Amino acid sequence: MLEEAKFINLSRSALGKCINALAENSAHVPIRDSKLTRLLRDSFGGTATTSLIVTIGPSPRHRGETASTILFGQRVENMLRIKD
């Protein structure tokens, strides 16, 4: 289980790096950093229709994760604006 969580976090991190690079209109997007980003490659550009649903909880003890999730959603929104 711990090994699986490690791979999930690595994939999430790689996805975040790709989203950041695209949102900043970077010349290099690290698509090859994980299997997840390689699978999503066609969704990152061109004429793909992209949707993202982020969920957050109201609990104060999850403030950090909530803020991180909102920021991720904003980065995706910025990426989509550049793509259009």
UniProtKB/TrEMBL annotation:
InterPro entries: KIF11-like, Kinesin_motor_dom, Kinesin_motor_dom_sf, P-loop_NTPase. The keyword Cytoplasm applies. One of its GO terms (biological process) is microtubule-based movement. GO terms for cellular component: mitotic spindle; spindle microtubule. It is found in: Cytoplasm, Cytoskeleton. One of its GO terms (molecular function) is microtubule binding. Residues 1-79 form the Kinesin motor domain. Keywords: Cytoplasm, Cytoskeleton, Motor protein. PANTHER family: KINESIN-LIKE PROTEIN, KINESIN-LIKE PROTEIN KIF11. Belongs to the TRAFAC class myosin-kinesin ATPase superfamily. Kinesin family. This is Kinesin motor domain-containing protein.
